[in-house]
Structures are given as C-alpha cells and as structure tokens.
Amino acid sequence: MEQRSIDKLLPRGITPLQAEIEETLGLAAGTLTREKLADWQLQRINQTVAHCLENSPFYHEKIGFIKDHLPIRSLTEFTNVPLTTQVELAQNALQLLCCSQSEIARVVTLNTSGTISRSKRLFFTAAEMQQTVRYFQTGMSTLLAPGWQCLILFPHQRPHSIGSLLKTAVTNLGAIPVPLGMFENPMPVNQLIQEKQIETLVGAPKQIYTLMKNWTQLRLGHCPVRTILLSSDYAAPALRQAIERGWDCQVLDHYGMTECGYGAGIECSAKDGFHLREADFYYEVVDPSGQPAAAGDWGEVVITTLRRDGMPLIRCRTGDVSRFVDEPCACGTVLRRLDGIPERVDSLELSLSIPRLDQLLFQFPCVNGYDAYQEEGRFGLELYLDESSSARTLNEVRDSLAQSIQTTDPIVITVKSGFPHSAFSLAKKRVQFKSAEIR
C-alpha cells in the first residue's frame, strides 16, 4: 500500500478559529492580540453578569451583592466572583434561565454521577445553536475539502442535536455529510466506508477505535479515510496513535462539553493542545480551593459564557482537569490552549481511572476494548482481546497493569473476544465502582 503523506492531509498555518474570533470581534484578519481579546472578554463578562443579575433568580440571589460594585474592572478582579458548582447547575436549572422557555430551542438532559442528586438540564436558544454550527464549520474546515464525504457517528435525527449541527456545518463547507449515528455492529459501517470511499469520520474515540480494529481484523486493506475528528470523550494518546497507524490517517481531537453548546476547543494540525473559543467563553483553571492555578499547574477548568442569553453561566466548574499551555503554538495563533483533559476531578484520588487504563491498555495491539470495575478489595477488568492473542501477551498486559496500578488489592482479569458493549454507546466510559459510576 502506498503510504500517504500525513503532512499533506491537514492544512498548515494558523488555526481557522482565530479568523472566526477576529470576525466576531470586528477585527481585520491577522490583527487579533491578547490585549484586544482580554478587553472584549471583560466587556462581555460585565454584560453577562448584568444580564444574569436582572433575569436569573439563581444569580440574583447568589451574586447579587456585587451589583453595587459593577463594572468589574479587570479579569483578575473577576476571580473574586463566586464559582458556580455542578450541584448548583443540577438543582437550579429553571432558576438559571434568563428568558422565557418559549425562546428555548434545545434542552439537553445529562445524567450525573452519584455526587449530584439529580440530572442536569441545559437550555439553548436557536441563536446559540447557530453559534455552535459556525464553530463546527470552522473546526471541520481543517479536516475536510469540498466534495469529501464525512461520516457522522453522532445522533442526528433531532433538530439541534450534535449530528444535525454537524450535518449543517459539513454542508456549508461544500462537503457531503453521511449521517449514521450510533451502531452496534462495526462490520456494516466498515462496508459503508469502503463502498462510499468515505474520506472523513467524526465520532467518539471508542467508536472509531472499534471500527479500525474490525477493519484490520477483516483484512480489508487500504482504508479511504484520510482525516478523523475524535469528540465527546477523552482520547488517550495510545488510542489515537493506534487509529493513525491502523488506517494511515490524520486524527485531531476535540474538547466538547454540553455546557459550551457541545464545543469548547479543537486542535490544529500541530496537535499540541486545544485552541479555545475565546470569543464565546472565558476559560480559567483553578486549584482545589477555587483560586486561579499557578502558571503551568493542573487544575479544574472553569467557564463563563460570553454570548449567551438563554442560560448564561458565570464561573462554572466543569469537573475537567487541565492546564494552560504557556508556550506559543507552532501554528502561530495568539489563542490560548488547554493541554488535553487527562482526568476528571472526581477520579484524581482513584488508583484506577479510565484515562490511565486507556493509555496503558491501548498500547497493546491485541486489545479490542475493555470494561472496568472496582469493588471493595479488588479491581476487575473484562478484557476483550484478538482471538489470536497468546498467553504470553496476556501476561504482558497483566504485568503492565500490576506495575502501573499502585495497590495491594488483586487485579481480576476476565478475557473475552470481540468488542465490549460499551464500545457502541456514546455514554462516557466509566469505571463501575460499587453501586456508583465514577468517571
């Protein structure tokens, strides 16, 4: 098979997200600076705070005391505003609304971990969903050329669903969306990729890894897929590299969260962190006490919406762990970026977590997938391996686990063939812990 030049698959140069932000700010191309962006963000923060104080019963009560101290004079001063927690988000959905429910075009309900007593509900207006379409269009422009076919592995039937928004974005770029959604059998999907000669995929990491593994097991040969965008869950470097090797393609990672209308940041071709939607959101990283993390330190990502009228959020804790990358990106943008999302706050104290297991297990080409659980006194893995895997390979996996997981508790491994059912779900992969789920 003739090797494709990876360098030629994605365009080089400044991330197109910068041009989108310059347009939003009314700036000429190439004139964005950190100072101009900070001025914009402070102005929008003050507008958002004033809007919330007037229209949101929740924020009127929580931060009403700052009304007499407006405007906020600096981004540093803004850090004195109290944080909004995920518990508050779950318990005060309607009180967070700043508009009539008749103006809401999309309501997203999210199941939460056992630390929160109820599901979260997030509300979006039609205009806010169009902001997401524009962002998707900007991000996908890095991966698509006009006329290319893009297979979308997210639900698309409902208006303003992720797949529906992607369909619109791909069409606007002159490419051809092929919406599919979730699947339970990788073989027909790979046959579709082969028959239609699909150039681009968008899906969850475990979905696309499963497709790649099935493709190689079926020995289907050269894969037409040239570019892939991973989204909706953490993508361990080992998993991503396995996809690139298996299909000789280019893989970019996307950072999305529902609080940000599905999109928060995206890699450029340099693949060195997530460039952020800084005209739509103000991002912070805080330490466990809620104070700004020191430069380069890991902490919890906090967001403030800058252009949202329906359900604005002020200094909202996301539960995601990351850090800002201080060094300039090779693409030359002035935008800040986050250094991946390797953990969740609620998994930091666990000796067993999905990101750590992903990085460890997907280094072994024989691994198709796994499910993990933690019970009192033991760890458990249902490990799905290629049928050709040897006892020696299994011992190597077991030894690697024992060295990486610092615990005296036994690790119980059950070997299975095929793929885990969790590989076909869009739910974030979790460790089953007693009767609760921990991300």
Fold and architecture overview:
The structure is a single chain. With 439 residues, this protein is α/β, with parallel strands linked by helices. It has two domains: 1-345, ANL, N-terminal domain (Rossmann fold, 3-Layer(aba) Sandwich), CATH 3.40.50.12780; 349-438, GMP Synthetase, Chain A, domain 3. The protein is 31% helix and 21% strand. It has an eight-stranded mixed beta sheet, with helices on both faces. The chain has a five-stranded mixed beta sheet with strand order 17-16-15-18-19. Strand 8 and strand 9 (274-276) form a beta hairpin. It is globular.
Backbone CA Rg: 22 Å
Find the CATH superfamily of the largest domain.
Answer: ANL, N-terminal domain
What order do the strands of the largest sheet run in, or round the barrel if closed? 4-3-5-6-7-8-9-13
Number of H/I helices: 13
Strand segment count: 19
Mean pLDDT: 91
Outline the low-pLDDT stretches.
435-439
Residues in helix, %:
25-40%
CATH architecture of the largest domain: 3-Layer(aba) Sandwich
CATH topology name of the largest domain: Rossmann fold
The level-1 CATH class of the largest domain: Alpha Beta
N-end to C-end Cα span:
40 Å
Query: What is the percentage of strand-forming residues?
Result: 15-25%
Main sheet? 8 strands, mixed
Keywords, separated by commas or semicolons:
eight-stranded mixed beta sheet, 13 helices, alpha/beta, 31% helix, 439 residues, disordered C terminus, GMP Synthetase, Chain A, domain 3, 2 domains, Rossmann fold, globular, five-stranded mixed beta sheet
